[in-house]
Amino acid sequence: MADSVELIEALDRRVKRREERREFFRHALSVGALTAGGAAMMGFSTQATAQTAAPSDTDILNFALNLEYLEAQFYTYAVTGAGLPAAQLTGTGTQGAVTGGRQANLTDRTVIQYAREIAADEAAHVASLRSALGTVAVAQPAINISGAAGGPFTAAATAAGIDLSASGGVFDPYASDDNFLLGAYIFEDVGVTAYQGASPLISNVDILDAAAGILAAEAFHAGIIRGALYARGVATPALRTNADKISDARDTLDGNRNSASGALPTIVADDDQGISPVTINGQTASNFVPTDTNGRTFSRTPEQVHNIVYLTRNQVTAGGFFPNGTNNPNPALTRSGAN
């Protein structure tokens, strides 16, 4: 309970500091929608665009809010054993419950402190987006973050080919420091690529500024998780191997494009890179940042993001971590892609 109180207090402090930015958000939401050209850049076909209204800035923020619900609930449960306050879960669409979250068995003081910081940031992201969206904020959809045999973490680990024989075929992200970091690794890299893909499509500069701030925070989080896994992988090489397998599985799920190849949907094998060491100028180097030859990270479309959180290569509207799908008034922002 003390941890929960501390987390809420930290959230209050962070939200207060962001009050001025949210005021910009509220004003900005009243102007501008994305162009059809922006929708095309996002990966929507002409047919799909004709059938569904092009996503507005509000739609994009609600798309982001769904992801923040997932991340915030995972970290908040892992740190405190309880989820977000009920007042932070309401909104338009069908509100759902969280399945399977619990306090993680963390023993490493550094990992515990990382988890506390990220949990507070993710909760602040939810509060900030909800405040910005006001009455058009979507409710939290049903979220499954169970570490049990039939849960999405086990499904993701199994699909990645991680050896689960020592744990009876189960991958529980709450069982240990190492498992927690691998579970967090599934989310963090996806969050970064989601914001990078959506940010250029936002038409209002004030919203873009705030979204860029969240993108930077998510990138820091991803760096923390990748760095922790890399360092712990010195003593436990299987950690790096398993992180690499998760990256490969995400590549398989989303059918991602090479960020350096332009607009053509050229499928490549390793846009989503793991954390194992690489060779730069003939010398061994870490791989904290999954960059291309231009030193840039890559992005994902909303459909590709849904492929990963739904744990499927098919075009569906629910599954995996969102058993009933994500909430968004624009159906184009609730489906995965056909890969």
UniProtKB/TrEMBL annotation:
InterPro entries, sorted: Pigment-catalase-like
Feature: compositional bias, Low complexity: 320-332
Signal peptide: none
Protein's UniProt name: Ferritin-like domain-containing protein
Organism encoding this protein: Sphingomonas palmae
Classification via PANTHER family: DESICCATION-LIKE PROTEIN, OS05G0151100 PROTEIN
Superkingdom of this protein's organism: Bacteria
Record region (Disordered): 320-339
